[in-house]
Specification:
The chain is an alpha+beta fold and 278 residues long. The chain folds into two domains: 130 residues, Roll (Diaminopimelate Epimerase, Chain A, domain 1), CATH 3.10.310; 118 residues, Diaminopimelate Epimerase, Chain A, domain 1. It is built from four helices and 18 strands. A hairpin with a 3-residue loop joins β10 and β11. The protein starts with a strand and ends with a strand.
Length: 278
């Protein structure tokens, strides 16, 4: 089975071209096996690029633990690059069907290949029941959340998948690796949640580390960066256009006043292709 490894700001996934080859069986098991960084290819998960009756293509995403997720912004940029560079659809603007609905991907093309893309991520979901979370508020904004014996203030947003944003003076391993998984599994989040830890430099510039639902800490998270942009505006901390610095690179966000949509811009890189023999 042929596969391609791609990454967007270090958020790396294995991509299967299901235009040319039917999807394999047991996708959760395959994602767990291929994502393993010691015994597999190594990745944050598995993404299928499939035909669509509604759009130019359909994206399906599985986390490293085999759970299927609704969306991945970094992954979607790479889907757009693959579709264009591998001549599945040769258009500078694509419509991709996702678990969030059909999203527009505008490609930045140089010398015949895509090197970055901008995604119209749509409107953020701010109703607590739709995020979903049992925390109070629409959205829950700087509300208390107890983890063990420690209280934290969090803001919750959905970008088609749930996010819990925590602003802090310092981002430490004890927060990301210790508190992150506990918040992911907290009973306040019936579908679990992604967790973003954010340190502000100024209203236009933030540093972020992400504990991703079903995967653990990743080098970047596109939907997480979008959630940070929304949470920053809602809590009065940031402007609508920000740069988010993540361990894998920088992402540019714009929560537009014109249409209430969040726009995500960042790199898309093909790393290598290979054949999975198992």
């Amino acid at each position: 089975m042929r596969f391609t490894k791609m990454q967007g700001a270090g958020n790396d996934y294995i991509y299967l071209d299901c235009f040319r080859t039917p999807p394999p069986r047991d996708l959760p098991g395959l994602s767990r096996a291929m994502s393993n960084r010691h015994f597999g290819v190594g990745s944050d998960g598995l993404i299928l690029i499939c035909p669509s009756e509604k759009a130019d293509a359909r994206m399906r995403m599985f986390n490293a633990d085999g759970s299927e997720a609704e969306m991945c912004g970094n992954g979607l940029r790479c889907v757009g690059k693959y579709i264009y560079d591998h001549a599945l659809v040769r258009k500078p603007s694509l419509q991709i069907e996702t678990g969030r609905g059909i999203l527009k991907v505008d490609l930045d093309i140089k010398d015949g290949n895509v090197h970055q893309a901008t995604i119209d991520m749509g409107e953020p979901i701010l109703e607590a029941r739709r995020i979903p979370t049992t925390l109070s508020g629409n959205p829950p904004t700087d509300v208390p959340l107890s983890v063990g014996d420690s209280p934290y203030r969090v803001t919750c947003v959905s970008m088609g998948n749930p996010h819990c944003v925590l602003f802090t003076d310092e981002i430490t391993d004890s927060l990301v690796l210790g508190i992150g998984p506990k918040i992911e599994m907290n009973q306040a989040f019936p579908n679990r949640t992604n967790v973003e830890f954010v340190r502000m430099s100024n209203p236009n510039d933030v540093t972020v580390r992400v504990w991703e639902r079903g995967t653990g800490e990743t080098m970047a998270c596109g939907t997480g960066a979008c959630a940070v942009a929304v949470a920053g505006v809602i809590t009065g901390r940031t402007k609508r256009q920000i740069v988010a610095h993540l361990p894998g690179g920088d992402l540019r966000l714009n929560w537009s006043e014109a249409d209430n949509h969040v726009y995500l811009t960042g790199p898309a890189v093909e790393v290598f292709s290979g054949e999975w023999l198992d």
